[in-house]
Amino acid sequence: MTGHEPADALTALEAAGFGIHALTEEQHTVLRSLTETELALLIDIKGRLDDVGPEVQAHSDLAGGALF
Amino acid sequence: MTGQRASTGQGASTGQSASTGLRGRLALAAPTLDRAARTLWTAAGPDDLRGRYLRYLTAMHALITASVPLLERAADRCGQLHDACAPLLADYFARHAREERGHDDWLLEDLAAAGGSPEAAKAAVPPPLVVELAGAQYYRIEHRHPVALLGYIAVLEGNAPAPGLADRLAADTGLPAAAFRTLREHAALDTGHLDDLCQLLDALPLTAQQQLETSVCALHTADTLTRLFLQLAADQGGRR
């Protein structure tokens, strides 16, 4: 595992399709400190949207479901 | 994990609180995980949704069967460590284990009320993604640091059932209200649990390495849970 910060996490996130410009400066500060491992995981997660398909128009109650 | 600077609840490189750092990271994962959950609960018809709900209950039973043992093991490991976080963490894990005890039995009762077989659910081989979710936590507790388990808990409790999910599914499936106790109870319980977890994160004298272990665990959990929801949504019931 690497704990190194990538050269420019915000640029990498934007290239992966995250809407970085809509975020606050506080959020930017958090994201600038992402390590390479964290960045890779976030980009993997973003890629899962390709498996979801078109946006599901669901009732607002139809959300969540994780259990611990 | 030694020689790291402790920084009570503060991100070592940003000066922000540990919970702000974790929430900021998870905010980027949230839209995908939320969409995966909505996909899970949106089916072509009542028959499809009933079958999907039974498979969901079976998978979730396999997952939360591991919750109390994970918490107890994490508390035990904290007792073996000599760092500043361990006593507070051990208390939190032990208290949380008491609160979570018996919830796997709720799922079996829900299954029975939904027309499923608790015995078949207990005998079923767990989905590999469930094993990945829980199994990764054993690795982190044993070989890294039990603080990482906070990342796992944050994602699961942070994506608890929506308050109206149980009633909505009861209406859409035609199943009795008794089949949705676990969803109903967790929608109420987990909001307070997540607040407790964030308060703990900010009170702990975390090193930068410990914060990283926690956030990587959280993002890994978000990714794996997204995959599990999508697999349950796609499964037509022919696979075990």
Form type of chain A: elongated
What portion of residues of chain B is helical? over 70%
Q: Span between N and C termini of chain B?
A: 40 Å
Radius of gyration of chain A: 15 Å
How many structural units, i.e. domains of chain B? 1
Poorly predicted tracts of residues of chain B: 1-5
Count of discrete alpha- or pi-helical segments spanning 4 or more residues of chain B: 11
Oligomer classification: heterodimer
- Low-confidence runs of chain A: none
Q: Give the ordered list of helices and strands of chain A.
A: HHHH
Q: What does the largest sheet of chain A look like?
A: none
| Biggest beta sheet summary of chain B | none
Strand content of chain A: under 5%
CATH class of chain B: Mainly Alpha
- Helix count of chain A equals 4
User: Could you say which structural class the secondary elements and strand pairing of chain A correspond to?
Assistant: mainly alpha
Instruction: List the chains of the largest interface with their residue counts.
Output: A-B, 39 and 66 residues
Tell me, rounded to a whole number, the average pLDDT of chain B: 91
What does this structure look like?
The complex is a heterodimer of chains A (68) and B (240). With 68 residues, chain A is an all-alpha fold. Chain A is built from four helices and no strands. Chain A has helices at residues 9-15, 25-32, 36-47, 49-52. Chain A is elongated and about 40 Å long. Chain B has a single domain, classed as Heme oxygenase-like (Heme Oxygenase, Chain A). Helix content of chain B is 73%, strand content 0%. The chains are: A mainly alpha (68), B mainly alpha (240). At the A-B interface, helix 2, helix 3 and helix 4 of A face helix 1, helix 2, helix 8, helix 9 and helix 10 of B.
